[in-house]
Q: What sequence folds into this?
């Protein structure tokens, strides 16, 4: 994995050099890695596509596959075969290791559509057309065996050229940015623009074949002396492919201040290529995607629909995208008047909302636009070229992440220009200013009063977008000629739903990854189990439908869901403080991923994928003083002043990374390895402390629940991946486990004083009861289940099981064990999964019984909940649809996880 640039994180980190004097490899005398489990079953694994259609027109696919502990050594190679037993070329590499050094996760890349594949240990088959990478003369040339892309290492051009054979299909691929320095409401002010282009600062070849090559390009957008809006772009190439994929990330580092009209407002953000045009104007073809696989199919100079007919075969050939016969063979009444037929050089498709797009064209700059149609939701696909070659391009999640736009310019000249706008310049500027003036909340006391009315934790200056990021995905094809309609439809499909290989749930369960025993395949063998499965299906379907009904779409919003519902308005509380965007509160990310792990359902995967792309980028800071922290739920994804580790939690990213080997998500996880240092910058409970506290790098107050679960997930992941800081990460995992276990009350102690240099908690002199209902609902149970399986540390296991045993216990039982009860607690249904886990670990039948009692008869959803929706229509609601006004996302996430884990752990102990 490439090194990640050090985040501009902490002024206090300047003194961190002393940490190097401590050994990262020491975790304490009682902290040892669990022994390997011995050779496990190494049966072949069947890989299948999430959706029908296989690879289609996509360049390739990469899948992560887990293995039981001890199955394969680190140097094991793998072979792929198709359904007929024929060898399929593949490229494999390790993603993670078990503590005994055996392979835990491997990644496998393929570039051929061979239906289901079988993965076994064995020698890989080399592809007939390999990916090769050649670095020389300031250029990186990547050949797939079909196309060659030359990548720049400096300047503004990311992709210097894309050739197929001897034909140059595209050139000068660069990033473009339009800045609007001032924004005014209504008809006030005058609009001015500044145009920036990409400026490369670093390029690295991360993989170089034989099946898959990856090139990473980092830089900023520059005009003159100013550079801003950092970008990180990865280009993916697969052997034998005529296409490549781009993963494009920007991080916002501009200035936008509430109440001020001046600032850094993005008016347009895009990717632009130049396309050489060699064919005659009547042989130049335009294809622009509309609804579904619908296409606008036109020529720059059309010869259909004229007053004079060139011939039926000529018209049919032009519509089909074929090279026309020499005009001398046409009806001469057309041939002699060709110069009077307009040449349409410019096309624009704008998707300014999730509900409509418009398409227009003109002959050239300076002349009027002509409407060319419109529709509801465009695919984000386009093509320009002719019989001698052409360039297809597409932007994934085009309408979901509106405002988006596709431009084709100058197709009537020797060089056309195509731009895929991630933010359409025809939309309102990107306005990220905080949404209110503070309303007099200048002191902590006033801010807590605000919290008590709108549930928003406000603090002046905290609602800033500085440091948030967004990732987009694009596809490009270098075609030897204008593709036939069927091939264009395949390209459209690849843009809309990128094909993904997947390992089956049985393999995930067998490998015991993501918490052994915490999930199992859906089982409807009894009425009680079937009813819970029905409830799980209901909840997922409801949220999927609500995304559509409530239009939870947009560049910065798509992928998130809302926190709480307002039954009076028949509306989610999108405008009420901490009840608006959810930002991973109580782990809906985990609910969705566990639902996928057990079922293998494509619709759940795609929902979880969109959420992971969102929550890991938009809800988290990647630059600035709060880099490594996320923002609590709110009206804007960055609005709340609670900047905490629990939202940046690596746990929420692990699933997508290990299932797909996605490098960008890998970056996000690695960036969290040092996020323990963020506690020097910001005290997460500064507003409610009753005792004086100043952050001290040798005595940082860190909670064992929401704080530590986020930290340890980053350390565990770095250790498993053998990342650049894996030894430090391993030591942090072991030393914090040991020193939590050593506390007088273990996890029940609640918090400890953490030393950044040693990675250890100070062991408190006196026992304290510091239990919160939030401590275990941000992935703690799932992480501890993994850690207990990975690390042989009996004291830690006992400390965690004790926490599980007593959270849902009676106050009398709590007081008998700890000297005092845990106070007023909530979320008992969600914590029933802790009962279930402890019951299995200890064999305690009473705990097993309590798990189901708390699941069925405490808080959250019950069997007497309605478990249905009610229809809505005007004038009650904005658009017709449905509501379940008893559904809240906190309850949904906790019910979902408790149901899945309880069924897996205690499905055979359900009450009759």
A:
């Amino acid at each position: 994995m490439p090194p990640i640039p050090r985040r501009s994180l902490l002024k206090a980190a300047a003194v961190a050099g002393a940490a190097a004097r401590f050994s990262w490899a020491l975790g304490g005398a009682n902290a040892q890695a669990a022994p390997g489990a011995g050779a496990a079953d190494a049966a072949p694994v069947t890989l299948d596509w999430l959706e029908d259609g296989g690879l289609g027109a996509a360049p390739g696919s990469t899948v992560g596959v887990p293995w039981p502990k001890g199955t394969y050594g680190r140097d094991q190679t793998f072979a792929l075969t198709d359904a007929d037993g024929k060898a399929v070329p593949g490229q494999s590499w390790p993603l993670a290791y078990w503590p005994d050094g055996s392979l835990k996760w491997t990644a496998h890349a393929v570039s051929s559509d061979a239906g289901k594949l079988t993965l076994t240990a064995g020698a890989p088959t080399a592809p007939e057309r390999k990916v090769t990478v050649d670095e020389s003369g300031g250029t990186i040339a990547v050949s797939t065996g079909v196309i060659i892309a030359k990548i720049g290492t400096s300047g503004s051009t990311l992709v210097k050229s894309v050739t197929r054979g001897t034909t140059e299909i595209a050139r000068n691929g660069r990033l473009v940015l339009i800045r609007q320095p001032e924004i005014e409401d209504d008809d006030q002010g005058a609009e001015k623009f500044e145009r920036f282009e990409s400026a490369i600062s670093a390029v690295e070849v991360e993989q170089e074949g034989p099946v898959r090559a990856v090139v990473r390009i980092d830089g900023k957008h520059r005009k003159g002396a100013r550079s801003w809006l950092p970008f990180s772009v990865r280009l993916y190439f697969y052997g034998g492919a005529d296409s490549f994929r781009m993963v494009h990330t920007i991080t916002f580092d501009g200035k936008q201040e509430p109440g001020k009209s001046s600032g850094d407002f993005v008016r347009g953000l895009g990717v632009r290529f130049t396309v050489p045009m060699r064919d005659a104007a009547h042989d130049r073809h335009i294809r622009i995607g509309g609804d579904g696989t619908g296409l606008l199919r036109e020529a720059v100079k059309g010869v259909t629909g004229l007053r004079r007919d060139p011939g039926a075969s000529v018209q049919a050939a032009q519509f089909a995208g074929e090279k026309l016969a020499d005009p001398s063979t046409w009806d001469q009444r057309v041939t002699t008047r060709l110069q009077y037929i307009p040449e349409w050089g410019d096309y624009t498709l704008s998707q300014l909302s999730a509900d409509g797009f418009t398409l227009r064209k003109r002959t050239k700059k300076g002349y009027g636009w002509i409407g060319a149609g419109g529709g509801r939701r465009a695919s984000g696909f386009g093509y320009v070229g002719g019989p001698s070659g052409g360039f297809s391009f597409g932007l994934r999640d085009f309408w979901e992440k509106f405002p988006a736009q596709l431009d084709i310019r100058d197709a009537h000249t020797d060089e056309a220009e195509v731009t895929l706008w991630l933010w359409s310049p025809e939309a309102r500027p990107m306005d990220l200013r905080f949404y209110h003036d503070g309303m007099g909340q200048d002191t902590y006391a006033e801010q807590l009063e605000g919290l008590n009315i709108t549930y928003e934790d406000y603090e002046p200056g905290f609602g800033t977008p500085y440091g948030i990021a967004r990732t987009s995905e694009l596809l490009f094809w270098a075609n030897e000629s204008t593709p036939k309609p069927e091939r264009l439809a395949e390209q459209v499909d690849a843009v809309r739903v990128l094909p993904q290989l997947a390992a089956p749930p049985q393999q995930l369960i067998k490998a015991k990854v993501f918490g052994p025993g915490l999930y199992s395949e859906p089982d409807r063998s009894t009425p009680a189990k079937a009813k819970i499965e029905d409830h799980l299906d209901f909840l997922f379907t409801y949220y999927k439908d609500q995304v559509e009904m409530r239009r939870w779409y947009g560049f910065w919003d798509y992928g998130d869901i809302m926190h709480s519902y307002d039954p009076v308005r028949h509306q989610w509380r999108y405008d009420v403080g901490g009840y608006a965007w959810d930002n991973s509160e109580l782990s809906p990310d985990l609910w969705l991923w566990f639902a996928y792990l057990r079922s293998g359902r494509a619709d759940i995967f795609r929902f979880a994928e969109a959420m992971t792309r969102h929550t890991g980028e938009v809800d988290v800071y990647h630059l600035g003083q709060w880099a490594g922290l996320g923002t609590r739920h709110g009206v804007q994804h960055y609005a709340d002043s609670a900047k905490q580790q629990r939202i940046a939690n690596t746990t929420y990213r692990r699933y997508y990374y290990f299932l797909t080997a996605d490098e960008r998500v890998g970056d996000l996880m690695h960036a969290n390895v040092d996020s323990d240092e963020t506690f020097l910058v910001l005290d997460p409970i500064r507003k409610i402390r009753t005792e004086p506290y100043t952050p001290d790098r040798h005595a940082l107050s860190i909670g064992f629940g929401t704080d530590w679960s986020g930290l340890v997930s980053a350390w565990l992941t770095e250790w498993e991946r053998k990342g650049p800081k894996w030894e430090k990460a391993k030591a942090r995992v072991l030393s914090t486990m040991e020193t939590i276990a050593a506390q007088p009350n273990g996890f029940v102690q609640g918090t400890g004083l953490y030393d950044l240099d040693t990675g250890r908690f100070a062991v408190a002199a006196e026992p304290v009861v510091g239990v919160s209902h939030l401590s275990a609902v941000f992935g703690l149970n799932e992480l501890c289940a993994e850690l207990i399986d990975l690390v042989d540390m009996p004291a830690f296991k006992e400390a965690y099981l004790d926490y599980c045993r007593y959270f849902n216990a009676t106050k009398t039982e709590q007081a008998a064990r700890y000297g005092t009860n845990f106070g007023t607690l909530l979320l008992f249904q969600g914590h029933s999964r802790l009962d279930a886990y402890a019951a299995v670990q200890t064999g305690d039948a009473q705990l097993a019984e309590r798990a189901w009692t708390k699941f069925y008869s405490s808080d959250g959803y019950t069997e007497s909940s309605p478990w249905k929706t009610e229809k809505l229509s005007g004038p009650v609601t904005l658009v017709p649809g449905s509501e379940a006004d008893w559904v809240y996302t906190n309850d949904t996430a906790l019910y979902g996880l408790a149901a899945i884990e309880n069924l897996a752990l205690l499905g055979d102990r359900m009450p009759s």
Q: What stands out?
A: Residues 1-39 have pLDDT under 50 and may be disordered.
